[in-house]
Sequence to fold (978 residues):
Amino acid sequence: MGLLSDPNRRKALTNLLTRLNTPICIVCYLAAIVWFMGLAFEPFTLRTYMSENAMGSTMVEERFSSGERALSLAKEFDAHKRKAGGMPVEWLVKAMQARGLEVFTQSFSRKLPFPDENKERYMVGGRNVYGILRAARAPRTEALVITAPCSPGNSNNQAVGLLLALAQYFRNQIYWAKDIIFLVNEHDLIGMQAWLEGYHHTNITGMEYSPLQGRAGSIQAALALELSGDVITSLDLILEGLNGQLPNLDLTNLFYAFCQKLGALCTIQGKLQRNDWDTAEGYTHAAQTMMLMVLKQACGRSWGDHGLFLRYHIEAASIRGINSFRHYKTDATTIGRLVFPSSPGMLTVLTPVVISHLTGVALYLLPVHLQEMAVEHFPVSETEAVVLTAIAIYTAGLALPHNTQRLLSGEGTEQGWKVLKLTALLYLAVLLGCTALINFSLGFILAVTLVPITASITPHMPKALCALAMVLLSPAFTILYCVFIYQELIEAPVSVGEGWMLFLSVISQGILDHALYGSLVYPLLALFIYPCWLMFWNILFWN
Amino acid sequence: MAAPLTLLLIVAVTIRAVLFRSSLAELISERVEVVSPLNAWKRVVEGLALLDLGVSPYSGDVFHETPLMIYLFHFTVDYAEIVFMVSPYFVDCLSCLLASLDRAKIFRKQKYALESDRYPADCLELLRSPKEMFYIPLKVAMFYLLNPFTILSCVAKSTCGLNNAIIALFIFCTLKGSALLSGILLALATYQSIYPLTLFAPALLFFLQRLYIPVNLRRSSFWCFTLQYAFIYVGSLVVITGLSFFLLGSWDFIPSVYGFIFSVPDLTPNIGLFWYFFAEMFEHFRLFFICVFQINVFFYTIPLSIKLKEHPVFLIFMQIAIISIFKSYPTVGDVALYMAFLPAWSHLYRFLRNIFLVSCVLLACSALFPVLWHLWIYAGSANSNFYYAITLLFNFGQILLVSDYFYAYLRREHHLTHGLYLKKKDGTEATLVLK
Fold:
C-alpha cells in the first residue's frame, strides 16, 4: 500500500500523470487502434485448433447420397408453397410423418410496433412445423436442432428439401444418442423466436404463441440451413447472433475441418481465405473480413436464424450456400463436385456446435436487397415517422445547453464545467467498459469515434468547429459511416441518397429488433450513450 | 429543515413505489448482490408457508431467519411492502436524530475545550461551526434514502432493511444515553445476526465516557458499570432466545440461523469474500479457514477500541463498516448502512487522501457486477474468476474507504492537539503517515 499512503511517491506519480496526460492519451488511443488492426495480421493470430472435448472430424464417415432426392423434394416444396400462398403446413406435416418423425405445429402471432418496410409486414401470424426424430437407444434428455426457414418466393426451397432428405436418411441410422428436431419456421426470426420461447417456457418479447405439444429434451446445438439454388459453389458460415453473441469457436473450426476434408469451399463473411498473408493485398483482405465481422457484430442483429439460440446458451450457427459468379483461384473440379454439403457428418459431432445464421441482417446482405432499395418511400409511412421522430429527438437535444444553463448552478464558472467533464468522462469510461465486455465490436466502434473528441473538449475551443466535429462524431453519424463502410466492404457501394435511406432503415430495424427479439443496441444507444454525448455537448457550450 | 426533509421523503417514497409496481421488482429480488440466503424475501415466504402448514419452518434448509422475524411477518405479510417501505424511513429518521444529537454533543465538547484552551492556536479552522453542521442530518437522510443500494434492497424486500433499522435504533438509544434500551436493542440486533456483538465495546465505551467513568481496568466503578451493561445485554439475549423457543416450540432455529451464519454452507456468489474461497477449499482445511474468516470479523474490535477509546461514536461507525465488509453473507443493504453515516464526518474531507480513487472503484464495480454476472451465467463467456475479481475489487474499495476515514480522523485529532502546521525539528514541513 506504499503508493496509496506514502505522500511523496503519490505526489511524484500524480505530477507525472498530470504533466504527461495528453501524450499518454494519444499514445493509448493509437496503440489501441494499431493493436486492433493487428488482429488481422496473420502472425498474430492463433492457428485454428480443436479443444479437447470436441470429437475429431476425422473420426466420422460421411455417407449421405440422397442429393437428387433432396432436389426433387425442393421442387415439390416450391410447388406447394406457391399453391398455398405461404407455408404449406399440411404437406410438410404429411411429408415429415411419412419419414417417421413425430410432427407438431405451433402457431404464433405478433403485432409489430410499426410496419416493417424492409420485409413489408405489420401483423405477423404464422405456423412453425417441427418433427422430432427420437433416439433409438438413449434416454430423451438431449436434442439437436436442424432448421430451415420457409421464405416467400424462390429462396430456401433447397434447404427444406435437404431437411426432409436428411430426415429420411437419419431415420435409417440406429446410432443416434440424441433426439433430432427438424424445424421449418415461418417468418424467419419471428417464427424462430416464437418456437424458442415456447420450447423454453419463457416470454421475453410479448409474442403470442400456442404451447408446444411435443418436446425433446434440452437442446445442445442447432444448425440453420439456407440454400437457395441447385448449384452451390461455396458455403458461407454465419456466426454473429443477437447482441453480438458468437457461438463456441470449436463450431467454426469443426466446420472448416469438414469442408477441408470434403474439398468444399468455405467462406466467412462471403470472402474466401487467402494464402498470401504476408503481402499487403493479403492483409487488406483479412482486415476487410475482420471489419465486416466487427460491423455485423456491433449492430447487434441476429444475422441468421441461429442467432436467437445463443441467448439460451445453445451453440448455433448458420450455413448459407452461395452460388457466386466470381472467379476463385481454386480447382474447378472441386467446385463442380460440390452439389450438396454433407451435413450428416457435421451433425454426428455437433455437440458444441450452434452456428448462428447471420443473414437476417438488414437485408443489405442478400443480393435481393437492391430490389428493396428501389421501393419508393412516399408518402411518409409509419416506419419513417417513427425513425424520423427518433432522429428529431436526437437533434432537439442539441438545443439542450441553451435551456439548462439557466437552471444549473455553477454556470459561468471554471469549476462547473470541469466537474461536469469529470463526471461525464467517468460515466463514458464505465459505459464503454461494460459495453465492450458484452459486445466488444460495439464498444470498440463507439470508443474509436467518441474518445478523441470527448477527451479533448473544453468550452474554450472554437465553438463552431468543435460543434461540427462533435456532431460528425456523434453516435448517429457513426451509424451512417458504418452503413457506408459496410456497403464498401461487401462491394456494393451506394450513393448518398441510397445511403441515407439505408440509414433510416437501419434505425427502424434497430427499434424493431429491440421490440421483437430483445436486442440491446438501440436502448443502449438511446438511453445511455446519447445522454453521455449530450453532457459533452453541454460542456462545449458552457459559458 | 422540515421542508427539504419532507421533499426528500416524498421523492424517496415515489421512487420506491414506482419500482415496486414495475417489472424491475422481480428482477431485482433475484440479484445475488442484493439478497443473500439469510435475508431473501422468497425464503421468508417459504418459511411462512411451512409455518402455516404446521411444519417447522427450518426443515428443508431454505429458511434462515430468526423466529421473531417470521412471527412479525406472519402478521404483516399482506402489508409486506409497507413494512419494507417504512423501515428505511425509520432508519433514516433515526439517523437524522442521531446526527443532530451527535452535533449537539460535539458543540458542547468543542466549547469546553475552547474554554479550557486545549486547542493550539492555529487549528481554529479545524473546529466545526454550527453553520456547516446545520445540514448534516439532512445529508445523512439523503445519503441513506436516495442511495441506490438502499433502494435496491428495499425493492427486493430484503430483510436487511429491518436489520439496519434495529441497528440504527440501537445507536440512537446509545447516543440518547439510555443504557437499558441500548442493551435490549443490541441484544435484538445480535439475535438477528451475530456480528453486532462487536458493537458492545463501543456502546460500553460511550456510556463510560458519558458517565465520566475512566476506562481503567483497576477501578471498581469501571467493572461495576461494565457488569451492569453486560448483564442487561446478556439477559435480554437470553430472554429473546427463550421467547423464540417458546414461540416456535423447539431449538432447531439455533443451528439453522447461527450455525448457518458461522459455518457458511451455502456458497451462492455474493459481494462477500467467503464464497469463492470456500468453493475451492479442500474439506480437510475447511474448519480451519472458517475459523480464520470468522475471527477476522471480530478481531478488529480490540485494537480499534484501544485506539479510539475517546471517540466511541466513530468506533461504532468503524465497527459497522467492518461488519458489512467481512460478514459471511453481505449484501448492498449492509454497505448502505455505514455509507449513510459518511456525511457526519464531512469535516474530515480535507484529510482524505484516496476518496476519488475509492469512489471510482466503487462506482465501476457496481456497474460491472451485473455485467460480469450476465457474462458468466447467461452468455457463458466468463467464469467465476471474473465475478470474484470484481468482488475483491469492491471489497478493496470499501476497505480503502474505511481506512482512509480512519486516517483522516486520527490526523485531525493529532492536529487538534499538536497544531495544524507541523514542523519537523529542522523547521521544514512535516507530513503525517499512518503506520
The two ends of chain A are 42 Å apart (CA to CA). The first helix of chain A runs from residue 2 to 5. Confidence is low (pLDDT under 50) at residues 50-55, 327-379 of chain A. Residues 139 and 177 of chain A are 8 Å apart (CA to CA).
